[in-house]
Each structure stands twice: as structure tokens, then as C-alpha cells.
Write the C-alpha cells for this entry.
Amino acid sequence: MEVTFRIRRYNPEEPGKNKPYWQEFTLKDVKETDRVLELLHRVKWEQDGTLGFRRSCSHGICGSDAMRINGRNALACKLLIRSCGPKVQVEPILGLPVLKDLIVDMEPFFAHYRSVMPFFVNNDPVPADGRERLQDAEEQQIINDTTNCILCACCTTSCPSFWANGEYVGPAAMVQAHRFIFDTRDQASQERIAVLAEPDGVWRCRTIFNCTPACPRGIEVTRAIGEVKLAIMRGTREGIINPKDIKVHG
Amino acid sequence: MQTHQFDAIIVGAGGAGLMAALYASKGGANVAVVSKLYPTRSHTGAALGGIGAALGNYEEDKPLWHAYDTVKGGDYLADQNAAKVLAENAVDAVIELEHMGLPFDRTPEGRISQRRFGGHTSNFGEKPVRRACHAADRTGHMILQTLYQQCIKNQVRFFDEFHVVDVIMNQGACVGVVALQLGTGEIHVFHGKATLFATGGWGRVWQITSNAHTLTGDGAAAVFRRGIPMQDMEFYQFHPTGLYGLGVLLTEGIRGEGGIILNRNGERFMEKYAPKIKDLASRDVVSRSIYLELRAGNGVGPNKDYVHLDIRPSTVNRYLAEAGETRRVDEAYVARVLAETLDVCRTYAGVDPLTEPMPIQPTAHYAMGGIPTNVDAEVVIDENWTVLPGMYAAGECACVSCHGANRLGTNSLVDLIVFGRRGGMKIAEYVKKADLIPLPPNPAGETEAEFKRLRASKGKTRPYEIRKQMQKVMMEGVGVFRDEKAMQNALNVVRELRERYRTDLTFDDRGYKYNTDALEAWELGCLLDLAEVTAVSALERKESRGGHSREDYKDRDDKNWLVHTLAYRKGSAVYQEGQTSIELNLKKKVDMSLAAEDPRFIPKERVY
């Protein structure tokens, strides 16, 4: 089949192209199982090498190639052409400064990530036998969903609250916070709860639900944010998630 | 041009680089991590099934058994001292990852859960053992995330999207690297006492690969161009279970959980090739078995060019019952512990592994060879283990060699953690006593000139055309099975392509900001250099061992070939201008220190 790509372009270095514009490319012999990423490569390799985009693993685990494809955020390597149709519109994810074509400045995103203390804290001495800390298999499942996050920014840049206010930490940072707040081994959940109780924390979430379908990892993002909200309201992580209610991926 | 000064420079931000950075900085060194990707994009994140360590959480296990499996899996080319360090340190290292918060799956007692993996056995090959510690089937993802988190906690300094293109030598030592900042096109010089390369592999040399687009061997190529040898480059691993057509990896953990490989007749053919541990034989053995089945016309599909991997609970339970085991699986269990696998198969192949078998073919996966190091990640440049001051390497780009001629599943993650940590500790120690050697005059001069030349290329051939041809000829000539003629042909073609790369290249983007067009051209130069040295090394080794399987020399030859291959680039020019040649040194003997104490480690026929 033949597919037309309509791509949002911007090249700060080239006169005439240093304001955003649309450009169309036509590709022949496209299979419906081709990934959008493969076809962007074909555009770049066969037609216009100046096209800028990020990618690495090409199978949905590195999180480099988040884009807005036909109006929805997705990883270009995880979206097959059969779910896009013969016309594919590709633009950079929204809410972050565009640097060139589909490449955005990720630094504000990672700054929000760093703000929620996204690291394990446990100041107790490690077990005397030199072995692992014990954790119940059910307790471990509590964070199974949110540890899936690959920091691709699909959720955060699909969030109208984030578009309106870049100071809002955004869904991805809260997914990361959730992963630690509800880790029964972690001891810093109160500090994280305090960070997220600030005005630009969890309350800027208006439960719009854009983030959940945007997640290429199938994380129930809005639910995770809701659980963080509950932890803030109650002042504790205890009793919020029942391991029996946990969704099994697949 | 900007110059930065640090005690230690870590190139690459995957598992090995982050572990080294963490330990060097905990040891007091001022550390910079320089990476062409954002750290969490590194390919460590794609590792799936587990990290091996003899924790014995389900059944008895010992580091010595792990070392034995590693040596045997490596077809006796592994340095036995390195295999010993790997297996012994693995236990502490995995426990430490847990202490860093890694969300491992748990046993009913709350300990780290473990599964079976290819080639991992108890009691010197007696039966499969549950040694692979896992976090669902995204263990690498969790390792990468956890280490990055810990680096943030320890305030390690990151230079993200800085592409290292050259290594700077002065007074016989490594004094830093030259990097291109992708966002600006500006050249930066990183000057330090110690530099550790952790830049990963070069699977993109081959057509079907599990490797990321960015795995182009830039670090190894930069080091090689400066006269440091590449060791054992002929040993490249083809993983048996790549998703058909794409090469995306399907974890060995599928077989660890009871999955079975079947041919078109529904026959479990691994019973023929590895009667004892069957589908859980070493990867090289399974990949060759698949090729033999395809050749015999037993492949699946219209072109009979793939086989099936079956994890349907009904299949798994049937074979478990047949083997007299009490364990059984159901759909919910498979969906939970192999979530990534299900997702990948459904997305890319339209196949639901819970109801249909998965189409698979071998895929280029892992470089056993690379920059030679000792067990402290110090780079060694000859058969006498002479250390090159200031230069370190760890992870896939390094060759310790703990993997020998074939790496066991899970041991790549072990390698990253164990040798990344040892490298970081050694660096912390080294920078305390070493003086900072000054930069040579104009340290980035050659790089700048080469980029200028590349940018001005006015030929007719686009990088992807050259890359495609290289990948095809390397797949055909230097793949799972090899012979003189096909390898020589591959080498000839690669050399022609190198020449075209030098004289007839063209690309579109002549700008500076995020010029990924020029970056890909640069990466292609690295791939071509590594393809050449791989073919040259493979032609020279006239035996079959591990991942190097020759149809014209079918047997392993311990009398002549218990040596590592050291390949040196000779010639005056660093880049592809002018003549370069490759010189081989075959004098570096394999370490046999375990065999000296325990006859079970003496090379013998390798059967599974």
C-alpha cells in the first residue's frame, strides 16, 4: 500500500525552515505490519536525511521515540501502520520546547522526575546475614504496574494540565513517586508525599484520563495518581492498595 | 570547543557505566558520565529474563557451579579466573541491587525469585538449576532504572546526548575523550585521570539483530583506531529466539519457564541435539540446531524459514508431566512472569503466545569479544596482560574474558554489575594516587578534521545503502555457520564498502544541531571497522568453538587454539584515510587456573 506522511518540521538553523511547517512524504510498498518508526527511517534514509527524530531500541522499551501520531501520543516503534491508515500525521509531543523536527527538549521532563526523589531510601542496616530484605510476594505486586514506566513522556505530554502549566510535575513523575511511595521496603514515602502535596504536585491532576491510554506500557496512570492523592489525604500509604485487586498485565 | 576536567570519565550509561559511575563516585572520585543517549534509553533496559547468581533460594546452588557452567558454556575459551570472579561476585552484586530497591519477584518466603536459564546447572552439569534472579521479564529494565535512580541520589554528573568519537592518549596513557554534543554539534574535550568505556555492543553489523539502532560499537571502534587491540572478535552470539523477521529478542526465560522449541512436525527437536537439558542448552548450540532443522526442510511457514517457540500452558504442562515434574503453569502465571514477551508478540507478530506458538529465528545478539581487560576492568594491550594506564572498559564492549566463545544467558547482566562495580572501585583507588597527565596539543584536531571531511562529502552513496549491504553480507558470511569462502567474500565486500564510505559518501544534513544524519554516517564508519576486524579474526581461527562454527574446520582444536585472538589496527591514520591493515597476535593463552586445582575444569567435549 501507499502511505502519506505529514510531518511537522522545524529546523532552527536553516532560513525558511526556522518556523514550524508541515511537509508531506509519500512511501510506496508499505506493509500494514510496518511500524511507524520503520517508515520514518525510510523517509530519512531514502528521501530526506535532514529529518530529525530520536530512537534507539525500536521495540518499545527504551522510550526514545514518543511522538504525537494522528493526534495521539505513542511510541513510533510500537505503532503499526494498520492502526494508522494510509495518512499518518506526525508531530512532536506537546508541552516541551521543540529543538528540531520531532526532537523536543526533555530536560523539563527529567527535572520534574528528579523532583519527586525517584530513588529507593531505606536507612536501616542491611540484614545481618548479608542477604536480601524480605518482601512479601503480594506486597511486591503492589508496585508491579508502576515499575513498568520507561520515562518516555507519552503520559505527561498528553496531559492538558501539563500543557497549561509546565510547572506541574505531571503524570510520569507521579508514576515514579507511586513506585516508591508504595514500595513496602522504602522509608521516604512521607517526604515524597510532602513534595506532591505542593500546589504543582498531585492536585493539578483533573482526572482527564488522557495519560492512561497514552501509556505504551499499559500502566494505569490515572489510577496511580489517584492512589497517591489518597495517600496524601490520609497521610499514609497503608491500606490504600489491596494486592488482590491488582491487574495482571497481559 | 569546550574542555571539561574530571577525575573519571565514564563513557556510556547502561548497566556497566552506571555501576562504575556509582562506585567511582562513592569512592570519592569526581565523575562525569558521557552518553550519546539519555541513560534510561540504554540497551541494558532491553535485557529480559534474569541475572544469574547462586543464591540458592529454591534449591541448592554454589558459585563454583555457576563458574563451571560459564566456562563450559564458553567452550573453554573463558578465562577461568574471570569466570570465578563473575560467579562469586554475582551473589553480593545481586543482593546489593535488591538493597538499592530493585523490585525482584519473590519466593513464597519473600526472597528473590529465581528461574531456570540455558546452560545453568547444578553439580557440574547434572540438571537445570533455578539461578536467574528476575523482575518479571523486564530484569534489565529494572536494573537500568535502579542504577540511574541511585546515580541521581548520589548526584552523579551526566552529559546526556554527548556522542564520544575519539579517545585521547598522551605519554602512554589515556587522558580522556573527545565528544560531539548532539544538540549543538559542538566538540567537547573531557580530560581526566581515568576513562572507562561502557559503550555496549555492535549488533547492527548484522541484518537480523536484537540490538538497538544505536548499538554501533562507537566506543570499541574509537579505542581500536588508537591502537588498542580488539580481543576474540570472531565470537559473536546469535540468540536462538529472535522474533521472526524483526529479530526482536524473546527471552530465554520463556524456555526457563518451560517453553519448548518445535519444528513444522511439532517435534521437540532439541531432544536430538542436547538430550540432557534439551531446550535449555547453550545459545550457540540451540541456534545451530535451529539452522540444521531449517536446512533439513523442517522449518515452519511458506518458506520453511522459521521454527516455533511454544509457551502455551497446555504444552508446557504436558512436557513438565512427561519429565516427572510437579510444577504446573496457567495462563495468569505466564501472563504475569512473561508480560513483555506477550506484549512484543501481540504487537509485532499479531500472535498471542497464550493461544499460539511464536515464530522465531536466530538473531545477532551479543559480542563476546571486545576491548581486552583484566578482572578490575583495566584495559590490557598484549598477551602479557600489560595494563594501559588510565583506560578501563566494562560490559559488552569489554572482553574480560568471562564469556569465552559463547556467553550464557543472564551472564551479560552479571558482567555489567560485577565488572562495572570492580572498575568503579579500581578507578576510585587509581585517581587518588595518579597525577593528571596533561592533554596533548590540539586533542580534538583529528576529530574536527574528520567531521569537516564527512560534512563536505560529495559522493553518490547514502549511508544506509552501505549499511544494508554490510549487514547482508555479514549475516551470510560471518553468521551462525561459517566457512573460508563465505567469510573471505564478506571481508572483500566490507573492504569495498569501507572504500566507498571513504570516497563516495553523501548525506543531506549539513547542519550542526541534532544532525542525526551525520551521526549515522559516523556510526556506519564504526560498524565497518568492527565488521572488518570480526571477519579477519574469524578467518584466522581454524577451528569451531562456541559461537564460531566453521563447516571447513568442524572440530574444536584445544591443541592449537586455547588462545585469545588479539587484533591490532596498523597504519598511520586514525580514521579511514590512507591505508590501514589488521595484525593478529595469537599468543595470549586462556587462563586455566580453576583447572589447575580441579580436574572438572579441564577442557573436555561439550555435551548438554
